[in-house]
Amino acid sequence: MPLGIIAKFHRRRHLSYNGSIEPNIVESSITIEMKNNDSKEQCIDPLLEQTVEVSPSILQRFEGILYALLAAFLFTTAVFITKELKVELVDALVLRFLLQTLMLIIYIKLRKNYSLFQQSTRRETSFLLINAISATAGFFAFFLGSHYLPLPDLTTIRYTQIIWTTIIAAIIYCEKPSIPIILAVLLTTVGVVFVAQPKFLFEKISSTNKNKIAKDHHQHLVGLFIALFSSIAMSITLLSNKYLLLKYKTKHSIIVCQFTLLSFCAVVIHLFYKYYFLTDRIQCLKQDFINWRYLCASLVCLLQIIASIFIQKAVKREHPSIFTIVQSSDILFSILLQNIFSSMKSNLLSIVGSILVLTSILIISGYKLITEIKDKKNSVPTITIE
Question: 365-371: long-range contacts at Cβ-Cβ below 8 A with a sequence spacing of 24 or more?
Fold first, then answer.
């Protein structure tokens, strides 16, 4: 009798989250049936399993974190250089918002063919309007606050937006405050007090170092309130942005485009109001805009466009809590730039306050990350095989 050979081969491939094919498991089962002349059947069934794991490279694994770090560095560096050039940050942003708006309109209309303003429901349109107004108000206040506060203090108070977001979300959804949230709020409060250093608590410090930071105590308080307003406005932006993305699946490019368009209009209105009522406005315009410092500041602010692109890439690749932690490196970059390259140094209490706010961000983001991981594990369905 001739030998009969039956071969069976199975192969499986899994798709990863980003669409690439990962050959995780290759299973092959070969059954060889042999019959001898005495009609006695011998069966050899070896199971050969070969596991091939293609692990991502270190660069691919930390790609989202690298994008977030680069975005934070570029944004903070642009703001710092503009301040060192003695140019008003709001004035230097005209070219940035103009170019970014034009680039986004071309991308949305010609490449993606999206609609900029026509939405499916009035509710979505209302949330888009809230998002654009709060984002413009928050960033405009941050840029305006750079005139009154040193960059580390301004950035530290701005990033209290994480705490404000948690508090507002807890009020809206009637959530009970947990111990990590209470601890983070306390650390943020103490950190803001250390950064602000009010005169009635830190009179000696306020009479020496703080006089170098601001013209007077009143001007410093104005900067603090502007920075707090910026953080609250940005927290509203985060909540409305999340609602639009989850509820209506709104394209993120449309949200950014509407923000840049409204911001450009706000900057133009600000400049018109600033110079129109001056008697010698022509001379002031020449003095403020027609010089090499303004040209350098405008070109440096274009780095914020690249930072915005990097932020979108980081958001798509990284968990929101991890992205928030990495993005708060703005605080560290601002402290380093201020104390290395500037003649104005941060005092010890300001640095401690920044560290406390940064610690509160780590607590909040880490708590959210652990909670989401636990919820995912609990929501995994169990399959019973009888």
Answer: 365/162, 365/321, 365/322, 365/324, 365/325, 366/180, 366/321, 366/325, 367/178, 367/180, 367/181, 367/184, 368/320, 368/321, 369/319, 369/321, 369/322
